[in-house]
Design brief:
With 519 residues, this protein is of the alpha/beta class. 32% of the residues lie in helices and 23% in strands. It folds into 3 domains: 234 residues, Rossmann fold; 184 residues, 3-Layer(aba) Sandwich (Rossmann fold), CATH 3.40.50; 73 residues, no CATH class. It has 18 helices and 20 strands. The strands form 4 sheets. A 6-stranded mixed β-sheet has the order 6-7-8-3-9-10, with helices on both faces. The chain has a 6-stranded mixed β-sheet with strand order 16-17-18-13-19-20, with helices on both faces. Strands 2-1-4-5 form a 4-stranded antiparallel β-sheet, with helices on one face. The C terminus is likely disordered.
Length: 519
Amino acid sequence: MEESEVRPLLEMRGISKVFPGVQALSDMTLSVMPGEIHGLVGKNGAGKSTLMAVLMGLIQPDSGTMVIDGRQFTAMTPAQALEAGVAYVPQRINLMTSLTVAENILAGQMPTDRFGFVRWDEAFKDAAERLEKLGLKLDVYQRVEGLSVAEQTLLAISKALFSNARLIILDEPTAALPRPDINRLFGFVRSLKDRGVAFIYISHHLEEVFEICDNVTVLRNGRLVGTYPINEIDTAGLIRAMVGEDVEEYQRKKTDGRVGEPVLELKNMVRRGHYEDVNLTVRKGEVVGIAGLEGCGASALAKSLFGLDRRGLGEVTIKGKPYTATNPSEALAQGLAYLPQDRYLYGLVGGRPVRENITYTVLDRLCALFGFVRLNKEREIVAQYIEKLGIVTPSQEQAAALLSGGNQQKVVFAKLAATKPDVLVLHEPTQGIDVHAKTDIYQIVSELSEDGIAILIISSEVRELLGVCDRILVMYQGKIHQEFRVGDPNTTPQNILLAIEGANTCSETAVSPNLSLIG
């Protein structure tokens, strides 16, 4: 081998895996070089998670081989994968949140004296020195639960490096991050790339794949579509490779003449430190969006309305009647349903069947004498929503956790729609799902609005709001800063982005430098 020739750090060749009735992977190949950031994309259910589970030793392939830094494996255990230098940082960070940063870094390696007592001064010093070598500033005395999501991600990556990882899998690492934290994460990843660490970057945010990756591999239906240098493919080409066809940007039909009387009305809403002087109205059949930076007040407002947080002062009415809910049960009973940003934490019971996930909010309506659930009626309702929302599942009894991300989100929509709400509040409704499933979700939102539901959407994706909303409100520092009506000449992505940053775009026309970073 010539000195200038560099061999791949990872080669997966001919990987196949069959589950009962499903060809999950078929003759898959993947190659990653040292110091490369390699994107891995595809629709939900394309095989990305299965391929990575094979690499991590969590699933044994039916055929194929893996070569990691010259060592060949036909199958691995998780311990062998870690020993080979492969680490996985999931979307839901797996850290010991009640312990300090130092304790997480040195777990299993805490320095002790001859009596077995931890030498704490030495432990904190060691952890600080390790982070300093990576150029990372984290308070080693801080409990992990007090870190931001971005800081927890940085800590998880660092912990993997301290275990001698040379290939790190990042699974949707930016799903819950505001732009400044994404910049910090990407800066750290690039610094490690310069040191020869390789990354497999899994994301549905295609603009981030173009921003951070060197090459990208596309999977579709468990098969390799192709691997492309990032500078030799554009967004349209990548989407076409993922779904097998062109996908047009969604644009909701005009609602002129269909929007009715006010349904949700907020007057002088104030919660000190979160939002203030919030006044807004959402009418029957109207879709209103809220855009803003992390901490602008939109998230706190949504959680307050659903009773997950304290509401503060102000008046809320639904259909002219006072809305007084202080918890989710009362909110649903008074006509307001909420789709949370984190569907895994708040939206789904992953280990339970699709049937139960759709109906547990309306079980009181399905109970017969003595409190027994009328199973035939329940299955009838579930079948209706599976058909109406296009939920792809082998049966009503399939565990929700085994569905693709897009279908999980549809199950949450079905659960909320089953309550027959007057108001539906959606928080990042397409987070973590693929481009094709996003279009399905947009269509569901449109159909629910046509049923007369007043819909409020909080989203960080400006183009998403432009495609599905009638009006867009921008929140800045806790206040509603500006309103845009979709279709007006002033309602452009550039102007909305400027308003998000605090500008008054009624008079300013400059183009935001971050436009290319918004999906």
